[in-house]
Specification:
Layout lengths: L8 E6 L8 E6 L3 E7 L4 E6 L9 E6 L3 E6 L2 E5 L4 E5 L5 E5 L2 E5 L3 E6 L2 E10 L2 E10 L23 E4 L2 E4 L1 E6 L8 E6 L2 H5 L12
């Protein structure tokens, strides 16, 4: 009997200024990633994936020194420094507001707003696996955020299979990928590039030791 190891990657989409099709790049799992960070407001969002599964099994938010939000595939826990509340996926519409933090939990997604950063975390199911996926809805216009989801690609006038991108010649492949940023999970076309070509940094610069 032969066994085959199936390589699973998380495919991230990166908007391109002036282009209808985004860039996309793969990150092999498992990993712990810095997804979004704003040092000025003490905001960060990190995610952890598991071997052999798409998406994330846990995503955490930290805001200022006392606000901590932990989301996994079964529950949502929020601590404001004094009190802790817990919600379960699938329960009725629930809303929680405190000190610049707004949480709106629906059956398979949660809206998270911390100051002027708005992110939706979606709960997806494929076959027997449940996983999370983040979709950034709003970022501060005058602040440059860091992290995997904190940038957009520079202006590229005409994309083709090979192109000068930054300081290097990059190979582009037009691929069909699933867009997990939407609950309907549409399949869209994107320009697949290497991680370094998209982010201009090594993946080690986006990894964290703890969530």
């Amino acid at each position: 009997m032969e066994f085959y190891i199936i390589s699973i990657h998380n495919c991230f989409l990166l908007p391109v200024v002036g282009q209808s099709k985004p860039l996309c790049f793969d990150v092999p799992v498992p990993h712990k990633l810095r997804l979004l960070q704003d040092s000025a407001s003490e905001f960060s969002m990190n995610g952890e994936s598991m071997t052999g599964q798409n998406g994330f099994h846990q995503i955490t938010f930290h805001y200022k020194t006392n606000h901590h939000l932990t989301i996994n595939t079964t529950s949502v826990r929020y601590h404001d420094g004094q009190n802790q509340v817990e919600f379960l996926w699938g329960q009725e519409l629930t809303q929680h507001n405190t000190e610049g933090v707004s949480l709106i939990l629906r059956s398979t997604e949660i809206d998270v707003t911390m100051e002027n950063i708005h992110v939706v975390i979606l709960l997806h199911k494929e076959k027997r696996d449940m996983f999370l996926w983040p979709a950034v809805q709003q970022q501060p216009k005058d602040v440059s955020l860091t992290g995997i989801l904190g940038k957009s690609a520079p202006l590229i006038k005409h994309l083709s299979t090979h192109q000068q991108f930054g300081n290097q010649i990059v190979h582009f492949d037009l691929e069909d990928v699933t867009d997990y940023r939407l609950s309907s999970k549409p399949v869209i076309k994107c320009w697949l590039v290497s991680f370094y070509a998209a982010m201009q940094r090594d993946i080690s610069d986006f990894t964290v030791t703890k969530l």
